[in-house]
Specification:
Metallo-beta-lactamase, Chain A, 5-stranded mixed β-sheet, globular, MBL_superfamily_lactonases, Metallo-B-lactamas, RibonucZ/Hydroxyglut_hydro, metal-binding
């Protein structure tokens, strides 16, 4: 296992602020094997604003849920009905940015951990942003709706000419992760290949949050409940809901790598996209924009 990079003199880092971007009620027995029958969990769909301390780039990781869910592809509505999802979006990511005086047109990069509906938000207002996604998302969107009437992804989701598809096949290792990409080339922000366990093109982010060795790992949908990180629960395969991941074994392997990161580097904070525990501790507090999350 390679080490996380040491800080350099005058080291750039990332200031991270959470953004309110909606909530979704999920069947908990779909997420963890220790849930009771019929148990539900209302979880956040977290979005994050990342600001580079040197070049001042504005980078948003995930957009949460869009307010007009009725405009999602028909296949998504079938999925929502089957799973019993219930969404609520009092504020979307754009509303949250406005609380600190930012507009979607100010954002330079929008990075999707993956292209499921509760992460893609409403991309239309981000007219000046380059969209960053894993290479695996290309086929999902190309074969999307309306070309495929049952698809869970819209063909126009990713703006033509403003999308970077990142291919992790030749990325070097970092820490416990086999493939990572130094996004700015200065050791401040790494895109981590999360493998295809959850869905094709799934990526995570590892951000340096202080000039002297603090880090934040944004894990996307590597797991849907914090008990998967602590080892208190495992990924289930439910007789009705199925599995939360396309490949349960690959997803479990990636979770093990995240646990190894947590155990090896005490100054790394890990947050899941639907991290109910983190949200309950921090909602409305200084970790939310226009505040800044403290670094470990």
């Amino acid at each position: 296992m390679s080490d996380l990079p040491a800080h350099a003199p005058d080291q750039p880092y990332i200031q991270v602020s959470a953004l309110e971007a909606g909530h979704i009620e999920i069947p908990l027995e779909w997420a963890i094997d220790t849930a009771k029958a019929g148990e539900k969990s209302v979880v956040p769909a977290l979005s994050f604003l990342l600001r580079h301390t040197k070049n001042h780039d504005l980078f948003v990781f995930d957009l949460g849920i869009r307010k007009d869910v009725e405009n999602l592809p028909p296949g998504v509505h079938k999925r929502i009905e089957k799973m019993g999802y219930r969404t609520e979006v009092p504020m979307d990511a754009a509303d949250s940015l406005a609380k600190g005086g930012l507009k979607p047109t100010d954002i330079k990069h929008v990075c999707y951990s993956h292209v499921h509906f509760d992460h893609i938000g409403d991309s239309r207002p981000y007219m000046n942003a380059t969209f960053v996604v894993g290479e695996g998302a290309r086929g999902l969107v190309f074969d999307g709706w309306p070309k495929n009437p049952d698809a869970l992804f819209a063909q126009d989701l990713l703006p033509e000419g403003r999308t970077r598809f990142l291919d992790p096949s030749n990325w070097p290792p970092l820490g416990p992760f086999p493939h990572t990409y130094d996004f700015y080339g200065d050791g401040s922000l790494y895109i981590v290949d999360a493998g295809s366990g959850h869905v094709a093109g799934h990526i995570n982010v590892l951000a340096r949050t202080s000039p002297d060795g603090g880090w934040l790992y944004l894990a996307g949908d590597s797991g849907h409940d914090r008990r998967l990180l602590t080892g208190e629960a495992e990924i289930p395969i439910h007789p009705y809901y199925g599995c939360a991941h396309r490949d349960k074994e690959a997803a479990a392997e990636h979770l093990a790598r995240i646990r190894r990161l947590m155990e090896t580097y005490p100054r790394v904070r890990v947050i899941l996209a639907h991290d109910r525990e983190w949200y309950e501790l921090n909602k409305g507090g200084p970790a939310y924009w226009p505040g800044v999350m403290d670094s470990l």
